[in-house]
Amino acid sequence: VWKRHNTSIVMGFLLLLFFSYAIFIALNLDTGIMPDEHTHFVFSKQFASTWGIPPDVPETYVRGVYIKQNPFLYYWLNGRIINLLKVILPGISDWQLRVSLRIINIFYALGTIYFCYQLSKELIKHKWWQLLPVFLLTNTIMFVFLSGGINYDNLAILLSMAGLTYLVRVFKGRTILANSLAWLI
User: Fold this and answer.
1) Which of 40, 77, 139, 165 could cross-link 119 (Cys pair, CB 3.0–4.6 Å)?
2) Measured between alpha carbons, how far is 125 from 86 in angstroms, rounded to an integer?
3) Nearest residue to 121 (alpha-carbon basis) of 164, 185, 154, 153
4) Tens digit of each residue's pLDDT (9 = 90 or more) over 115-134
5) Residue 63: its pLDDT value, please?
6) Is 51 exposed, middle or buried (0-12, 13-18, 19+ CB in 10 A)?
7) Strand, coil or helix: 176
8) Are 37 and 149 spatial neighbours (Cβ–Cβ below 8 Å)?
9) For residue 2, what pLDDT is reported?
10) What are residue 76's phi and psi, to 5 degrees?
């Protein structure tokens, strides 16, 4: 009898609940609680100073981590977001930049949840069971906690989930060219 009912309301509720938790964390989390958030923020600010890969300066390696040993795409995107925010709001403070980057990370996590749902739709036939991976992901404390902070895990998990989704679609023979290109990207 449940197969007749629409699952989109439950999916929307899960997304809203997750978004509420993550926004609460992003807006209320003190500096220093999120693992390595300060380092990620400093790297992002350094990437905002150039279009390429910036050199290490004392501010970046004071915590024992070097720019060359980290994924560049995440910091480069954050640098462009910082540049855009500084154009729109010239007097933006570091705290406002930090919160803005946290909110951007929430959208990366929402993308992860979307691709998790798409992947579960590919692998699970019963439409109510398709919500189980999404439910488990949105209620995993570590995922929700990290989603509200600045870290490259959010983008890495999003791209991994998208890659898995498109790879499964390729293996199932669904629009091989488009899904292969999406998987490779």
Assistant:
1) 165
2) 47
3) 164
4) 999 999 999 998 899 999 99
5) 73
6) exposed
7) helix
8) yes
9) 59
10) -65, -45
